[in-house]
Write a structure and sequence with these properties.
Helices cover about 70% and strands about 5% of the residues. It has about 240 residues and is mainly alpha-helical.
Length: about 240
């Protein structure tokens, strides 16, 4: 009987220790209380909860505003796209009208029918025979030239079409209106196989090279005249 009572007493003590241990684990985790045990802790928890709720509300508000902004931006883009499309369609109509009148106006991205459109580029000349000032004939397309040095090719062509005297006596307006002005243009176009877009890009360089050739010849002649005048002056002294 005494042994039975002793065993029951030990078992009761063991159960009591386990319950106490479980309560301790329930209330604490890593040295911190899982649930508030005082009014101060309750107040702190309530404050944190309110702060979290306010933060979440602000976040939701910001997200709604962002969505509204995105919708407005999308609407603006759609309106802009519609305007661009309308402008492009009007340009195509204008190009069709001008093409019928034989006025070529290039429009990138055009997808209209080409049956009403005149050719964009005139076929290149296979030869360009011109009469030189001395009466002989020369094919300008046989002259040496590279596309990276168009200015030199222009000067070479002008040497075949004009005498030095013609170049330093001719005025700028006379040169631009001269028949050889267009001859030089055609020589460059056909020599280097430039399409209309490439020719439009290179034309300012070609035009300036023509005028520069005239200026250079005038400078040379002026220098010769000045030197000759000085020489004559010294001889007379």
């Amino acid at each position: 009987m005494n042994e039975v009572k002793s065993r029951q007493s030990k078992q009761s003590s063991s159960n009591s220790i386990k319950l106490t241990s479980n309560k301790s684990v329930t209330k604490q985790l890593c040295g911190k209380h899982l649930f508030p045990t005082s009014n101060d802790e309750n107040q702190e928890a309530v404050t944190l909860l309110k702060s979290s709720i306010i933060t979440n509300k602000d976040l939701v508000k910001d997200m709604k505003q962002s969505l509204r902004d995105m919708k407005q931006l999308s609407t603006s883009i759609d309106k802009l796209d519609a305007k661009v499309h309308l402008i492009f369609e009007n340009q195509k109509k204008m190009q069709r009208t001008l093409a019928k009148r034989k006025n070529n106006v290039a429009l990138l991205g055009g997808d209209f029918n080409t049956e009403d459109q005149s050719p964009t580029d005139i076929p290149f000349e296979k030869s360009l025979d011109c009469e030189k000032p001395d009466g002989t004939t020369i094919d300008l397309l046989q002259l040496y030239g590279v596309q990276t040095q168009i200015g030199r090719f222009v000067a070479l062509v002008m040497d075949q079409l004009f005498t030095k005297e013609q170049l330093y006596t001719i005025t700028r307006s006379q040169l631009v209106q001269h028949k050889h002005y267009n001859t030089i243009k055609e020589a460059v176009r056909s020599r280097f196989k430039l399409n209309s877009e490439e020719m439009s890009f290179e034309w300012p360089t070609i035009h300036e090279s023509i005028l520069q050739k005239r200026r250079n010849e005038r400078k040379k002649e002026t220098s010769i005249l000045v030197t000759s005048t000085r020489t004559n002056h010294h001889q007379n002294q």
